[in-house]
Every structure is written in structure tokens, then in C-alpha cells.
BlaI/MecI/CopY family transcriptional regulator
Amino acid sequence: MGAHTTDTGPKRPNGAREAEILDLLHKADSALTPGEVTELLGGLTYSSVVTILTRMHTKGLLTRTRRGRAYAYTPVTDDPGFAARRMRSVLEERSDRQAVLARFADGLSAADADLLRHLLGPDQ
């Protein structure tokens, strides 16, 4: 057996780990280093946390600034902004935007459709 720490607990998809870390960063009072994320989150090795944070930074989900020998990470937007960004990303990946938007609108509840009309302006 080696002296290094290994990930514990059940294997989770990367997206779930990213969401968990993003939630932690949103709730933090300030930017967090990988060591702080590892300590607060538990269940992951330091190197796994560094890998996930680096990947999230590369995707444009996080900003980072130097703090000592490490980077400290913070989300680029709040949770609603992150969700909106994901929705735009999915829309941009599809060639038929009209069909995607039509299917999305068809699936909205009456209350959500009214809210969307209100947000788009009085002429909608």
C-alpha cells in the first residue's frame, strides 16, 4: 500500500463532481484554493480537486488568481447565470435553433411561458 491518499466513496461522474465543487465555490465567502476545496468537500484527493478545478477553469466556468503557491478559484457567474450559460451552450451546439427553441417553449409550464413573455418585453 502506498502512502498517498485515494479517492473515497462511490465513483461519481465528472459533471456531478463539477456541480458539487461549483456549489461549494458559490457558497464560499471568497475564492478557494484546491487545498481548501479538498478540506471542505472531502472524499477527493488533492490532485483530483486540482484536475477538476483546472478543467473548470479551462471551460470558462471559473476565474483564478494566485494565492501563495496555489491558485484560488471563484465562479465567473452566480448559479442562475451558470444555468443560463449551459442553456446557451446547448442551443449553440445545435444547427436548427428554431426547432430547439420551439421544443423548449412547448415544454414550458403556463407560468414559465408567461414569465418568459414578460422578460422578453411587452411586444411578445
User: Anything to note?
Assistant: The helical segments are 14-27, 34-41, 46-58, 79-93, 97-106, 110-120. Residues 1-8 have pLDDT under 50 and may be disordered. Residues 14-75 form a domain with the Arc Repressor Mutant, subunit A fold (CATH 1.10.10.10). The beta strands are 62-67, 70-75.
